[in-house]
Specification:
The protein is α/β, with parallel strands linked by helices. 43% of the residues lie in helices and 12% in strands. The longest helix is centred in the C-terminal third of the chain and has 24 residues.
């Protein structure tokens, strides 16, 4: 009989703060098995205690870029493995544990029907809670009578619009006098900057073609291909002859979405897997994210330059306008993981600053720390009476530094220094 109580108790426990690169992904996933879901990992409760700003500095403006909250699977295709297991059951090939796996996965499938791609209730709460903490941590920003304007922008996807609305509705409940303007970015490419030629990349080739030509086979051979599926195949099937080990991945990929739902009666698919198995499952997606959305020796930072750099440039322009006009309290942008990861890499914040070979990704860049659901980056602007401006950087509400940018006051950076660095990226 499977023992799931330990996992459930672990999920109810307080989250342990994670420091990028200084800790090992194996241990982090063993501490919390749900982290193996990578970009589908639900936002963890965070300790948002902050250091005190230098004397005389008070916050006056915030620039936020965040991913939508927890969602259901984007497509029913993720649950095709349920039909596969049903066919094996009909042939009498499922063990007692295999039958239980099918029942558990079917329950998650039923809870997802008709809701594909939608924001879950948990996702809505994630955004509301982030907005609450922002409002309570920085009352000076939102209670300044001369700065009432809040600009909130989302992509056209409904879950992103819903995330934006959850966020601003909670912020308005704390500060009813705010003047919130909402906008849709109908062309999601507008979240990117103008394409420029990159060293080693032909301007006639598309980024997609270039990235698809990069081989990640060595990285996968070292990491994700190390997953031994034989243990679970023997536990789930009475005869494993002709059954592909890929079904072990498919079951996990379908069932890991359970953590994004507010359904106490749903099972935890993770309970069937050993920590080392979850680690190797995670490695596969981590390698893919680093290959496509970070700066590696192989990809020359194509997507970071194309997407992340463009967003970063927009955030700089937003800040310049807020500083110049004097009436904007915050710019709040809501988008997707495929935009947030290149942005974090373009910024070079700790945990997203590694620029080596793809093969090193599982040791250096942890998706569950960077682009979990509701993942975000916030720039909080402070000013003293003399007009000097400092900026604090938060990643998922944690103070972070930029390792390559030497600054004695980090995580508080002089704006002119930070601005010049961002534009150079």
């Amino acid at each position: 009989m499977l023992k799931k109580a330990g996992l459930i108790l672990l999920m109810l426990g307080l989250s342990i703060g994670m420091r990028c690169s200084a800790q090992d992904a194996r241990r982090l996933i063993a501490e919390n098995p749900l982290r193996a879901a990578g970009a589908l990992h639900a936002y963890e409760p965070l300790d948002t205690l902050f250091s005190a700003p230098p004397d005389g500095y008070k916050p006056f403006y915030i620039s936020h870029f965040g991913r939508h909250g927890s969602r259901y699977h984007s497509s029913e295709n993720k649950f095709r493995v349920v039909e596969t297991l049903q066919r094996y059951r009909d042939k009498g090939l499922l063990t007692e544990e295999g039958e239980t796996v099918l029942a558990d996965l079917s329950a998650i499938y039923e809870a997802s029907k008709g809701k594909y791609g939608d924001l879950t209730q948990k996702g809505a709460r994630e955004l509301e809670d982030i907005a609450t903490r922002m409002g309570l941590h920085y009352p000076e920003v939102f209670s300044d009578t001369s700065r009432r304007a809040v600009i909130a922008i989302s992509t056209v996807k409904q879950r992103v619009q819903d995330s934006r609305d959850c966020f601003i509705n909670r912020l308005k409940s704390l500060y009813p006098e705010l003047d919130v303007s909402t906008f849709l970015e109908t062309d999601e490419k507008a979240f990117d900057g103008a394409h420029q030629e990159v060293r080693g990349h032909s301007p006639n080739a598309t980024e997609k073609e270039f990235l698809s030509s990069i081989s990640t086979s060595a990285a996968r051979k070292r990491w994700s291909d190390s997953l031994d599926t034989s243990r679970l195949l023997k536990r789930w099937f009475t005869n494993t002859s002709g059954i592909s080990g890929s079904i072990v991945r498919s079951v996990y990929n379908a069932g890991c979405i359970r953590q994004t739902m507010d359904k106490d009666d749903l099972p935890w698919i993770e309970s069937y897997y050993l920590p080392k198995e979850l680690f190797f499952l995670w490695c596969d997606t981590d390698i893919s994210w680093f290959h496509s959305s970070c700066i590696s020796e192989e990809n020359l930072g194509i997507m970071v330059h194309r997407s992340g750099g463009g967003i970063l440039e927009m955030m700089v322009r937003d800040a310049d306008k807020a500083i110049r006009d004097g009436d904007i309290a915050a710019h709040l942008r809501f988008s997707h993981d495929v935009k947030l990861m290149p942005l974090l890499s373009a910024m070079g914040v700790e945990g997203a600053d590694f620029t080596g070979p793809v093969e090193m990704a599982p040791e250096k860049m942890f998706t569950f720390q960077n682009i979990c659901t509701a993942g975000n980056v916030q720039l909080v602007f402070y000013r003293d009476d003399g007009g000097s401006i400092l900026v604090k950087i938060l990643k998922n509400e944690k103070e972070v530094s930029i390792p390559v940018l030497a600054c004695d006051s980090a995580p508080y950076y002089p704006w002119e220094m930070l601005r010049a660095y961002f534009l150079s990226r």
